[in-house]
Write a structure and sequence with these properties.
Strand order of the largest sheet: 2-1-3-4-5
Order of helices and strands: EHEHEHEHEHEEEEHEHHEE
CATH class of the largest domain: Alpha Beta
Strand content: 15-25%
Largest sheet: 5 strands, parallel
Oligomer: single chain
CATH topology of the largest domain: Rossmann fold
Shape: globular
CATH architecture of the largest domain: 3-Layer(aba) Sandwich
Number of helices: 8
Distance between the termini: 27 Å
Number of domains: 2
Bound molecules: calcium ion
Number of strands: 12
Amino acid sequence: MQLLLAEDEQKTIDYLTKGLREDGHAVDAVGNGADALALALGGEFDAIILDVMLPGLDGWEVLRRLRAAGRVTPVLFLTARDHVEDRVRGLDLGANDYLIKPFAFAELLARLRNLARLPRAAPGGGLVAVGDLEIDTLRHRVTRAGQGLRLTSKEYALLLLLARNQGRVLSRTLIAEALWGVFYDQQSNAVDALVRRLRAKLDTPFETPLLHTIRGTGYVLDR
Ligand code: CA
């Protein structure tokens, strides 16, 4: 894979660059957000490993501007432990995955392999599509097979989260954190209830279900 690594700690850069190259990847490393954005906009990378805390432009701003420019390069965020809001913000801005520091190198490789398998979204700006489902993220309009769906704001937020992670199983914990900011044990039930309401509108009237339950793990949106 052709990788862009944006990270400002020299030790981490050296360690990751060496390991990734040994695994057969080509790595461009930059130490600040402005360089990361310039390279990301100018080059063709298979994935970007983006530290949140970068000098100049931070990781969020790099990602926001990259997506605003219509670039869909998969982004793996590196965030600090216990910063739930960082992870949620990253996913909201269109990051594809995140890793919490410190992480095992083997896990980074596994996440990168997973990213490489992601279908590339069409660079159509605000449109997210899964099968015959279309989400217009600018107008917050959802249609399936051309039929408009009326969703509550929480149902919409859940659908968008799942759609942006099409094919990836999201745990109840991750969903609860993304929708409510924190996770309490009781929220497992809230997530399940919300999924039931969404499913009744999204899948029940149609022939093919898109929202799937992965028992003991979570939920996934896929064709
Ligand atoms: Ca940093």
